[in-house]
Amino acid sequence: MSVLDNFEQWKDFLAERLEQAQQQGLSQQVISDVAYQIGDYLARQVDPKNPEERLLADLWRVADEQEQHAIANMMVKLVQQES
User: Fold this and answer.
1) Under 8 Å between Cβ of 15 and 82
2) The model scores a pTM over 0.70
3) Which InterPro entries does the entry mention (predicted)?
4) What are the boundaries of each domain within the chain?
5) Mean pLDDT of the 61-75 span
6) Contact 69, 36 (CB under 8 A)
7) Does residue 3 surpass a pLDDT of 80?
8) How does DSSP assign 57-78, residue by residue?
9) Host H or E run for residue 27
10) I need a surface site. Which of 50, 54, 57, 73 has the fewest CB within 10 A?
11) Does residue 2 have a pLDDT over 80?
């Protein structure tokens, strides 16, 4: 089972990666940039596996670049608050 199959598992995976990045001393800006790159890759290359991912992919597609950065930042904040 892939972490992409279940949204809660995906958020847990992101939270673990975020914690590792912070422990390695990556700045919030670098983390934000990586989150944007991951979001862009997923929206372009990966078929959504659940309704939450479908919604995020649809929002990503209609957003301009600034809005996409905001979506990526909100995902980072979401997993930070839940961990």
Assistant:
1) yes
2) yes
3) DUF3243, Uncharacterised_YmfJ, YmfJ/YflH_sf
4) 7-82
5) 95
6) yes
7) no
8) HHHHHHS-HHHHHHHHHHHHHH
9) none
10) 54
11) no
Residues 6+ apart with CB under 8 A from 46: 4
- 24 with 39: CB under 8 angstroms? no
Local structure of 48: helix, strand or coil: coil
Taking a C-beta distance cutoff of 8 angstroms, is the pair 18, 76 a contact? yes
Q: Which two tokens stand for residue 34?
A: 């990586």
Residue 75 has which token pair? 């995902």
Q: What is the mean pLDDT of residues 56-67?
A: 96
**Residue with the two structure tokens 């957003």:** 63
Residue at token pair 């961990």: 83
Cβ-based neighbour number of residue 15 at 10 Å: 17
